[in-house]
């Protein structure tokens, strides 16, 4: 991560390869963040592109003295996701067939066997379904902490809230997620019983 | 500690962020509270589920799409342009085709007997290549077949010698017994003469030597299409002397009609 200020400088100086390196280094994390927020691969791709366009346009506002580039990038992405969430609140009730197909086509690892892949996909879908049931505040806190592996301080910086609030949101989010998953597993168990 | 207090500390307890005093309090409460134990267990499972969740791989076209949307079509560097030209050639399929072409060309050149260091104008004619390759191929085939046939003769000799081994009793007393030896024509062919089995060999004490005589193989050579030229002559392989390490008797007789065995 130490090379990021230098990369940003080079990208600002108009060096395309530096921007490409930044993009390739962070696109996966941002895509996963978007996917956890939306639960749809095609929407996550669009959002990832929008986030990086915004980053490209506002790269001059990044100040290395204020923090790591990844934290700044996560903050930009999170703000964009919150805007997107508010903008599309009504549209999210329906899901298109295309997204379902996209989700099925996701492959976590080519090296695992078919059984492991199916199990991994089931776990991912269960987790995503549980995350979708959380409120946006708790969801973004849990995603940033437990899925994006950010420290509490970084989460606080990204969300722009005090550390205590972050801890509370993460804790409540985990408890709520545990209840949701338990309820979903109970429903699934009832559904599979003969 | 109340249930509510414990609920607020679950995450910090599971992540090991509590100080020792609070930790003891939490564990003391958990020891006597089944619902809180279930709550901690469920939260632990959630943490494990989140930690085990693998990152998804974005579609391969995502980064190029973003690059086009931000910096447009980037002009490739000189090195990338060179790599773009070389990349198709470096593919395994292309390399295999090139290797096979080189291999085939080398086989044709070798078969045609063309010396690439001293190449002449006539060597560039494909017809010459075909003629030379055809001739060399037939010669090679003819030599190989002759070699196999010679091996067969040697095997036949050994077999008949083995059949004659019980007869040394007849040669006791220092007297040599020779079977009637058919006169092989000097330098000519003896084709058509089929000696009977007793006439095949004579036994003598001591070492013996087998020499093959002239031998024509017209019927075998004629179908090669190269005429009855060299292969009809005395072949070095056929006229080779065979010495068998049999010290108890001496062998002197023609083994078959085209050959003579002399001492």
Task: Give short descriptive properties of this protein.
A: 194 residues; mainly alpha; Rna Polymerase Sigma Factor, Chain: A; Arc Repressor Mutant, subunit A; B: two-stranded antiparallel sheet; 4% strand; disordered C terminus
Could you characterize what this model shows?
The complex is a heterodimer of chains A (194) and B (263). Chain A is an all-alpha fold. Chain A folds into two domains: 1-104, RNA polymerase sigma factor, region 2, helix turn helix motif (Rna Polymerase Sigma Factor, Chain: A, Orthogonal Bundle); 107-194, Orthogonal Bundle (Arc Repressor Mutant, subunit A). Chain A is built from nine helices and no strands. In chain A, helix 3 crosses helix 4 (69-87). The model of chain A is unreliable at 95-108 (pLDDT under 50). Chain B folds into three domains: 3-52, Arc Repressor Mutant, subunit A (Orthogonal Bundle); 78-123, no CATH class; 138-251, no CATH class. Chain B is mostly helical. A two-stranded antiparallel sheet of chain B has the order 1-4. A two-stranded antiparallel sheet of chain B has the order 2-3. Chain B has eight helices and four strands, in the order H-H-H-H-H-H-H-E-E-H-E-E. Helices cover 49% and strands 4% of the residues of chain B.
Radius of gyration of chain A: 18 Å
Q: What spatial form of chain B do the alpha-carbon principal axes imply?
A: elongated
Supply the CATH class of the largest domain in chain A.
Mainly Alpha
The CATH superfamily name of the largest domain in chain A is: RNA polymerase sigma factor, region 2, helix turn helix motif
**SSE sequence of chain A, one letter per element:** HHHHHHHHH
């Amino acid at each position: 991560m130490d090379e990021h200020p230098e990369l940003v400088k080079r990208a600002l100086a108009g060096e395309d390869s530096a921007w490409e390196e930044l993009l390739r280094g962070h696109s996966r994390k941002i895509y996963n963040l978007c996917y956890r927020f939306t639960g749809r691969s095609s929407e996550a791709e669009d959002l990832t592109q929008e986030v990086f366009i915004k980053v490209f346009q506002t790269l001059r506002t990044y100040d290395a003295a204020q923090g790591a580039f990844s934290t700044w990038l996560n903050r930009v992405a999170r703000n964009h996701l919150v805007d997107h969430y508010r903008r599309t609140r009504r549209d999210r009730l329906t899901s298109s067939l295309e997204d379902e197909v996209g989700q099925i086509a996701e492959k976590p690892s080519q090296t695992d066997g078919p059984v492991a892949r199916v199990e991994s996909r089931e776990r991912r879908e269960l987790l995503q379904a549980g995350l979708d049931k959380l409120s946006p505040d708790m969801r973004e806190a849990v995603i940033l902490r437990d899925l994006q592996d950010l420290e509490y301080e970084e989460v606080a910086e990204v969300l722009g809230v005090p550390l205590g609030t972050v801890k509370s949101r993460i804790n409540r989010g985990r408890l709520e997620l545990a209840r949701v998953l338990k309820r979903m597993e109970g429903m699934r168990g009832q559904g599979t019983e003969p | 500690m109340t249930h509510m207090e414990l609920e607020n500390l679950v995450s910090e307890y599971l992540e090991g962020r509590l100080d020792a005093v609070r930790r003891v309090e939490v564990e003391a409460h958990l020891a006597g509270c089944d619902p809180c134990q279930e709550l901690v267990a469920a939260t632990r499972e959630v943490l494990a589920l989140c930690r085990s969740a693998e990152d998804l791989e974005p579609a391969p076209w995502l980064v190029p799409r973003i690059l086009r949307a931000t910096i447009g079509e980037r002009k490739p560097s000189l090195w990338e342009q060179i790599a773009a030209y070389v990349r198709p050639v470096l593919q395994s399929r292309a390399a295999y085709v090139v290797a096979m072409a080189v291999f085939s060309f080398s086989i044709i050149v070798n078969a045609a007997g063309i010396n690439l260091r001293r190449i002449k104008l006539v060597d560039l004619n494909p017809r010459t290549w075909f003629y030379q390759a055809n001739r060399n191929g037939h010669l090679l085939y003819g030599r190989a077949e002759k070699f196999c046939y010679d091996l067969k003769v040697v095997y036949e000799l050994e077999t008949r010698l083995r059949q004659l081994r019980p007869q040394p009793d007849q040669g006791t007393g220092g007297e040599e017994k020779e079977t009637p030896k058919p006169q092989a024509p000097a330098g000519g062919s003896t084709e058509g003469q089929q000696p009977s089995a007793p006439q095949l060999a004579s036994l003598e004490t001591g070492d013996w030597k087998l020499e093959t005589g002239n031998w024509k193989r017209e019927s075998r050579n004629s179908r090669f299409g190269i005429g009855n030229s060299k292969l009809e002559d005395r072949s070095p392989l056929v006229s080779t002397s065979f010495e068998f390490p049999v010290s108890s008797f001496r062998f002197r007789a023609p083994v078959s009609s085209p050959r003579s065995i002399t001492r």
